[in-house]
Write a structure and sequence with these properties.
globular; TIM Barrel; hydrolase; about 40% helix; alpha/beta; two-stranded antiparallel ribbon; 16 strands; GH_1_N_CS; GH; beta-glucosidase activity
């Protein structure tokens, strides 16, 4: 049995959904610089800026009691010294509309939407100046919504900083004269300082924080001990952040490794005391896939998209991600064994190029199968003692993918647009809409 107050809902970002690119004082954001031009861009999204109430009505019909979204930094500031009241007013109405429909708003304060000018002027989170600007913005946001928001996520998938690939999601590019790993560690450290300061402020206002990481379960490719070590190293990229959220300090392995490799970031006097303020109330994860680790090889890269090694024992999606529901159960057990903190799943779902059939229907049995198996494994983990308190699906209404591709759809609700043709953006319920509605109605008892 799941908790009676179990959170069921969905999650999106502003830049992949809102559109309204030049409205309400919004300025360009660094996420715009991550789209390759191969598919589309983020300028129109699914027009949620104007249509969010329509989407919320559909979520209410499904029975959602929680909704995760991002507050777009590039909508909240016109430059580093000027806050944009029109942006705050938009989220006033947005949050009120969720509450009116019985959904708990769960804002993410950073989901790759830093104003471009902060990348151009300071190289993003590589700079402590940007840390200061971000912390002050977050304080303004928390002051505004503390009476309406109970749970906050500060950074989305913060451990993505350590994945091999560009760092534009955090508004930064590699300087020519700096070791790339040292640079990654610097962004890691700076964002953990920002997280800790914002976490402390949210607590001072009575709110709770869900420290977030993306977890890609990594299995040793063989039973060779070196492959096991490589697997442990891959997992450490999540643990280094989760340890700060749970314990208030770097874990001994990663800290020693930075020393041994000569990749230690600049740590200012008092920083390690600031990290002690980073202990959150719960942990939250995104989980989509697993990979395998072989000594001396990369198990995951994220250049133009996430690329993982193929596991011969698992199926792969059309987009090259493993389908591994048991990996979710393993992940939940590992995290709870390590931290003994409440855990929320705040992203999980199945991307596919859904098609409308001749009857105007979208029969997405593949998505139902994927999510059914993952929820079942989540329930088994709970039966095994894990304190898991929520399941939020990724992209409950079709949105652009992280690389601005509309054909990689995750939603229970189809949006009638393509990469190049915006069409009418009409919303159409998929078969999975009715399935997930029943799952929520039965609090996960009937899958």
């Amino acid at each position: 049995m799941l908790r009676k107050d179990f959170l069921w809902g969905g999650a999106v970002t502003a830049h992949q959904s809102e559109g309204g690119y030049t409205e309400g004082g919004k300025i360009p954001a660094v996420c715009d610089l991550t789209s390759t031009g191969e598919f589309s861009d983020f300028k129109d999204g699914i027009d949620a800026y104007h249509r969010y109430r329509e989407d919320f009505d559909l979520f209410q019909e499904m029975g959602f009691n929680a909704y995760r979204f991002s507050i777009d930094w590039s909508r909240m500031m016109s430059d580093e010294n000027t806050y944009n009241e029109a942006g705050f007013e938009f989220y006033d109405q947005f949050i009120d509309a969720l509450i009116e429909r019985g959904m708990e708003p769960i804002p993410t304060l950073y989901h790759f939407e830093m104003p471009v000018e902060l990348y151009e002027k300071y190289n993003g989170f590589a700079s402590r100046k940007v840390v200061d600007i971000f912390v002050e913005l977050c304080k303004k946001i928390v002051d505004r919504y503390a009476s309406k928001v109970h749970h906050w996520i500060i950074f989305n998938e913060q451990n993505g900083i350590l994945q091999k690939g560009p760092k534009m999601f955090f508004g930064a590019v590699y300087p020519k004269d700096v070791n790339p790993q040292t640079f990654d560690n610097q962004i890691m450290h700076n964002t953990l300082i920002a997280h800790s300061l914002v976490n402390e402020y949210i607590h001072s206002k009575g709110g709770k924080v869900m420290g977030m990481a993306t977890v890609v379960q990594s299995y040793p490719e063989t039973c060779h001990p070196l492959d096991t070590l490589e697997s442990m190293k891959a997992q450490s990229e999540a643990y280094v952040f989760l340890d700060v959220f749970a314990r208030g300090h770097y874990n001994s392995y990663y800290y020693a490794n930075m020393k041994n490799e000569g990749t230690m970031p600049e740590i200012q006097e008092g920083d390690l005391d600031i990290l002690k303020k980073g202990m959150t109330d719960s942990l939250s994860i995104s989980y989509y896939m697993s990979t395998i680790s072989h000594y001396g090889e990369e198990s995951l890269t994220n250049v133009n998209d996430v690329v993982i090694k193929k596991n011969p024992y698992l199926e792969m999606s059309k987009f090259g991600w493993t389908i591994d529901p048991i990996g979710l159960r393993i992940t939940l057990r590992q995290l709870y064994d390590r931290y003994e903190m409440p855990i929320y799943i705040v992203e999980n779902g199945f991307g596919y190029d859904d098609q409308v059939n001749e009857n105007g229907e979208i029969i997405d049995d593949y998505r139902i199968d994927y999510m059914r198996k993952h929820i079942q494994e989540m329930k088994l983990a709970i039966e095994e003692g894990v304190d898991c308190r929520g399941y939020l699906s990724w992209g409950p209404v079709d949105i652009l993918s992280s690389r601005a591709q509309m054909k990689k759809r995750y939603g229970f609700i189809y949006v009638n647009r393509d990469n190049d043709d915006l069409k009418d953006m009409r919303r159409i319920k998929k078969k999975s809409f009715h399935w997930f509605k029943h799952v929520i109605e039965t609090n996960g008892e009937e899958l």
